[in-house]
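Schema walk-through. Below, the input block comes first and the output block second. Nothing else is stored per chain. Lengths vary across the set, and this one has 174 residues.
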Amino acid sequence: MPLIIPVRGFEPIIGKDCFLAENATIVGDTVIGDECSIWFNVVLRGDVNSIRIGNRVNIQDGSVLHTLYEKSTIEIGDDVSIGHNVTLHGCKIRDFALIGMGAVVMDDAEVGEGALVAAGSVVLSRTKIGPNEMWGGAPAKFIKMVEPEKSREMNIRIAKNYLMYSRWYTDPEK
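--- output ---
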């Protein structure tokens, strides 16, 4: 059973048809949309400020989401994939974006709709990644534009795949 902890008068809100791994930790002012999957060893720590997660978002194993007290929040749009061991700290991730494994996205950074952040990248504070841009490296830099249709199609496919994988844990017939 996931660890769901109210703090400072805030109790996490979980949408419909979500998968929460048994060792996921969800704290405080955290709102998760519908059909999301929160995987093993994920920590959503909404103790010092808010975390808002859209629909059909998958947050993969070992990822940590946190904020700065009274300064930054996390906003994640719909159909977003957050890879394994990602750190998101007080940033905004728009619809259909993908954050690669092991990436770090810092406070007040924004990842645009359909954008891709390569695995292992470090997106510094206040960086603005535009829609359908691919960024990579440490610190992350612009690499190239991604065709909007391809980006959207890929991220919808990944989101649907993770929804399917989550059903394997809740419905053994699938």
